[in-house]
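Amino Acid Chain and Its Fold in Token Form
===========================================
What this section holds: a protein sequence and its matching fold, both as plain text.
Structure line: whole-number tokens from a learned vocabulary of local backbone shapes, matched to residues.
Purpose: to set a sequence beside its fold so the mapping can be learned.
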Amino acid sequence: MQIYVVKAGDSLYALARRYGTTVEELVRLNQIADPSRLVIGQSLVVPGGGEEVREQIEVNAYVYPTVTDAVLAETMPYFTTLCPFSHSATAEGELRPIQDERLIRAAYAGQTAPLLTVTNLGETGGFSSDLAHTLLTDEGVQARLLDNIVALVREKDYYGLNINFEYIYPFDRDSYSA
């Protein structure tokens, strides 16, 4: 065993991958009450005998539901996160469904974190600046969208969330940042 000091951007998931263990094992070893909350400077016991661990890169993959099982099996070992593409938000704060269950199962089986991906893709398929404006400025729509996001993350057991809004108007910059 060795001691690792938490740095900005660390997560138990990333540390588990880096040290060849599981989140559950890190939680057990360190008696962590809230696995979603690490503190910068926190010392963690991690497997290994003090040998140098090679730095790894984080790799996010966007994938369409039509990807074949063969391609998933071949590429999954190289991904940190997998983003089924995509649940498009509507101007009412709803999410258009996709067939993502197989991808979520494959991600977890491959020790990859599946992220719910929410986009501002319009009904015609392109990114919509007007849709982004509505989603970023209408508080009622935002509240519905956030409720729907939380419900879907829980329902489908996503590991986290990826917001992929593109073609945002310059005047929506502050709203997007907020």
